[in-house]
Amino acid sequence: MASDTAGPPSVTGCTAFRLRKLSRRVSQHYDGHLAAAGLRSTQFSLLSVLMGDVPPTLTQLADTLEMDRTTLTRNLKPLATAGWVRTSVGDDGRSRTVHITEEGRARWRAGRPLWREAQRSLHTALGLPQVERLHQALDDALAHLPAH
């Protein structure tokens, strides 16, 4: 990866590359734990968002996840095929609402203790002070970058 920078000399390398590399490694960590429930971290995250009382529209869900609707639809397809989610026509007749099914709730419940263990072991590996700094840095970055 090229190390051209537009910032101070102490910043080298591509920020996007480093974030993607970290994201892949963290996803692999969670995926390894969630595999026992037949879930990937992306699927568990989607099911977690859908565990609320009010089913969101596709647009609301995409906005919550900061994901375009096309990508969201592609990510929902295997969950629908597995019977974990379903969509229905929204109240206005034009939108689509996403519902978690009882099978999806059961899958989420099976994954929850595995996710907790993944979270615990990641925090142990990094150390809580590092996790706190990482969360703060991520929250700060999100606050400074506009959503598109």
Automatic annotation (TrEMBL):
<dbReference type="InterPro" id="IPR039422">
    <property type="entry name" value="MarR/SlyA-like"/>
</dbReference>
<dbReference type="InterPro" id="IPR036388">
    <property type="entry name" value="WH-like_DNA-bd_sf"/>
</dbReference>
<dbReference type="GO" id="GO:0003700">
    <property type="term" value="F:DNA-binding transcription factor activity"/>
</dbReference>
<dbReference type="InterPro" id="IPR036390">
    <property type="entry name" value="WH_DNA-bd_sf"/>
</dbReference>
<dbReference type="Pfam" id="PF12802">
    <property type="entry name" value="MarR_2"/>
</dbReference>
<dbReference type="GO" id="GO:0006950">
    <property type="term" value="P:response to stress"/>
</dbReference>
<feature type="domain" description="HTH marR-type">
    <location>
        <begin position="12"/>
        <end position="143"/>
    </location>
</feature>
<protein>
    <submittedName>
        <fullName>Winged helix-turn-helix transcriptional regulator</fullName>
    </submittedName>
</protein>
<dbReference type="InterPro" id="IPR000835">
    <property type="entry name" value="HTH_MarR-typ"/>
</dbReference>
